[in-house]
Amino acid sequence: MTPTAYHTPVLLKESVDALDVKPGGIYVDVTFGGGGHSREILSRLSDGGRLFGFDQDGDSERNIPDDTRFTFVRSNFRYLANWMRYYGISEIDGLLADLGVSSHHFDDESRGFSFRYDAPLDMRMNRGANTNAADVVNGYSEQQLADVLYLYGELKNARRLAAAIVKARAAQPILTTGQLTQTVTPLFPREREKKELTKVYQALRIEVNHEMDALKEMLNAATQLLASGGRMAVITYHSLEDRIVKNFMRAGNASGNVEQDFFGRSHAPLRPLSNKVIVAGEEELEANPRSRSAKLRIAEKN
């Protein structure tokens, strides 16, 4: 499988341009995936530059470039600070994150990320993780399921969905995407079926992979690691992660509360470089439908 087949990078030029790559700088791509963004960063580095690529999915290792300037880290990006310490890196000049799920995950029916296929209910980014989506669907209480669907899927009928899942699993464990889809689909209007199913699967995926907690930990570490003038470029796909990224870039924390000193001066460590998010152009939208929901935010370390 070629890197392009694995995953088509979203907002490639815009995101790497945003980093304002210094030829001899140290950069981190915390969502390596197919390696598209990493290869673009490498093309702008001199022999003295360094790039670290993070990915917890073993499938991505087949895309590692043969380049001595590149170091692959098979790990969740929440451990960014630990790994940079391990490699003796105290400051970085830029970090790029393309959040969400790669097209590879959606297209590989065995991974259970999509309702397009009838597959085992898995959804683990890291196949070595202990908990999969079937464990959540069959093991969580009705209240826990309702909370997950409401908080991470923003589903207004989360309680009804949770009740339907609990009733169905009492008769037979829900072990496949087909069973889950069959269980919840009757609760959605036909014209909104796909959109609502997408939210259900998004909610379960976020819970299985602890995505919101991992994102907060990574952003906190990145904020500490960036050198003065260093850049952070983050591509988001849904409102939950976008809100967290926006708050970190504005205030340096997930809540968005800006700390001030006695004189009312802001202590925010980052400075957003644009009040507006950057979105894909028409040409990219036609070539890559995934880019339709993508938003790029950029910030610089003060």
Name its key features.
302 residues; alpha/beta; seven-stranded mixed beta sheet; 14% strand; globular
Characterize the structure shown.
This protein has 13 helices and seven strands. The protein is an alpha/beta fold and 302 residues long. It has a seven-stranded mixed β-sheet, with helices on both faces. Strand 1, helix 3 (36-42) and strand 2 (50-54) form a beta-alpha-beta unit. Helix 2 (12-19) crosses helix 3 (36-42) and helix 7 packs across helix 8. The longest helix has 17 residues, at 193-209. The chain is globular, with a radius of gyration of 20 Å. The mean pLDDT is 91.
Please give the structural blueprint.
Elements: H1 3-6, H2 12-19, E1 26-29, H3 36-42, E2 50-54, E3 70-73, H4 80-86, E4 92-98, H5 103-107, H6 133-139, H7 142-153, H8 158-171, H9 177-184, H10 193-209, H11 211-225, E5 226-236, H12 239-251, E6 270-272, H13 282-287, E7 295-301
Parallel strand pairs: 1-2, 1-4, 2-3, 4-5
Antiparallel strand pairs: 5-7, 6-7
